[in-house]
Structures are given as C-alpha cells and as structure tokens.
Amino acid sequence: MLNTRGPKQRRRLLLANVVKSQILYAAPIWSNAAQCPSYFRGVNSTYRLCALRVRSAFRTVSDEAAFVIGSMIPVDILARESTVLASTRRTLTQLDRHQARQSSVTEWQNRWNSTTKGRWTYRCIPNLVSWLNRTHGEVDFYLSQFLSGHGCFKAYLFKFKHEHDPYCDFCLSGVEEDVHHVFFECPRFHRQMNQLKLAVGGVFTPQSVVDYMVKGTSEWASTSDTLTSILKELRDLERQRRISRA
Ligand SMILES: [Zn+2]
Predict the structure, then answer these.
(1) What pTM does this model have?
(2) What is the pLDDT of residue 4?
(3) Domain spans in the chain, listed from the N-terminal domain onward
C-alpha cells in the first residue's frame, strides 16, 4: 500500500481487522503457546506489518511503538483476553467484555511503561487510555513520522546511510537533526511551532502536543496540518540533497 495515496485509513483498518480475526481464530486453544517467543514470532511480524501499514509508518519502527501509534493491542494480550472470555461459564455480558478489555489495556500499559523500545513515542503518548479512547483523528504517513521519530530527519537518515552527516543544516552548530530538534528546538520552523505552542498553552512538550490533539477534531486537524507542512518541507529538502549528491 502506498504511503501517501492508496486506500484510506478506514479501509486499511478493515483489512487489518480481518487479519486480526484470522490470527485470533481458536485463540483459547493456543494462547499458552504464545508465551514462547519463537512460536509466536511469525504471527507477531504479520500483526506488526498490519500496524505499520494502517498508519503508513516506516518499517524500522519498533513493534512496541507501531502498536501504540496504530492503536492495536498486542496480539498475545488479545489472545489471553479471548481465553479469559472463553473460560467464563455463563453468557457473556457487555460488562464482562468491558472488564476484560480494561485489563488488557492495563497489561499493555504496564508493558509500555517498562519497555526500552519506542521511547520517543512514549514521550508523545505515555498514557494509552486517552489515546485509545479518542473518537477522532487519523494517523497518516506524516503524523506517523512525528509520533515515531522515524522519518525525514537527518539523524535518522544518517543511521541508515542515506545522509553524509546527522547535523541540522539550518543551525550549523553541530546539533543533530532528530525529531525533537526539528519540532522543539530548531528556529527553522519557529513560526509554525510558535503558533502551535500558543494553541497548546502551558508547558510545550511532545506529550502536551498529543494531549492537545486528542481533545477534539479541530485541535487534531490544526496540529496535524502544522506538523504535516513541516514534514513535507523536510522531505523536499531531503529530495534536493539527494539530487545534488547524484
Ligand atoms: Zn536546527
């Protein structure tokens, strides 16, 4: 699927849900085996690919961050949830399902708090509940770059040998151009980020930006527009550098 064109997010999600349902078929029978990483590796990589393609994120994004950005509960936790529900010896109620889902999210939150992976994403989205409970806001190719830190940032591209150096060309002070520098330090996008800072109010951090976005549709749209315009400019700059090197 293309990153900036191709199926809309709702269709991508629908396809991902079909895959999820197939993976979870008869989960109560095999969920114990999921505790063995080597048995579960193939399933997890398919599920991870779904999370990445739904949000058009880079393939280098860790499983942990991909699942959070994609709002997809890790599949081993979902398998255990199915097992718990299947072991209930009465007709399931909405409350049963709600409680089972709450404990799955709590388990996921504990895992997210303690992992060493996806720490930039954790700075943006430390609290899974408010992120998952939002009823608006699609995460596209550009927003995924902001939330994962994997995108057209020189420090990231340098790591994969797509740039000669990781430094910001605008600051010229030997400072690395990573996601934090671009959005929270660099004067290059001062005007756009200052507008966002005023809108967010209070302390301006990756978390406060995401907290502001989940407040409502207009907050999400205005923030997404600002971040997207910056990321598009970065992508153009990267293209220009690539052409001049050729
Ligand atoms: Zn800079």
Answers:
(1) 0.89
(2) 65
(3) 9-123, 151-245
